[in-house]
Amino acid sequence: MKFNESMPIYLQLMAKIKQDIISGQLEPGAKINSVRELASKFGVNPNTMQKAFAELEREEILHAERTAGRYVTKNKLLIESIRFKEARRITEAFIKQMKSLGYKEEEIIEFLPYSFKESE
Known about the structure:
By secondary structure, the chain is mainly α. Helices cover 62% and strands 8% of the residues.
């Protein structure tokens, strides 16, 4: 994973884990690798990984079981809510970029079917 220097690493780690959850790569109730394993995988300090985990636990996306490790929430409504918010964020960014190119709303809507055909 390549990190963006303009954003704290723990936030980028949180975003990656959220992405894995909302995309279905990590299913509800799945066990998460340990702090040390993930810190090694991403090439970060374990304290940074721990901070990302702590924030994800605060947001109730992950939960810890004392000696058993950390798990993805089983709350499918929470996962779907996060997924919807991310889709909304991406859509709003797309619309903003299209408008910066001079496209009007009607033109953006007309453009979408072509985008789907090209992505297949």
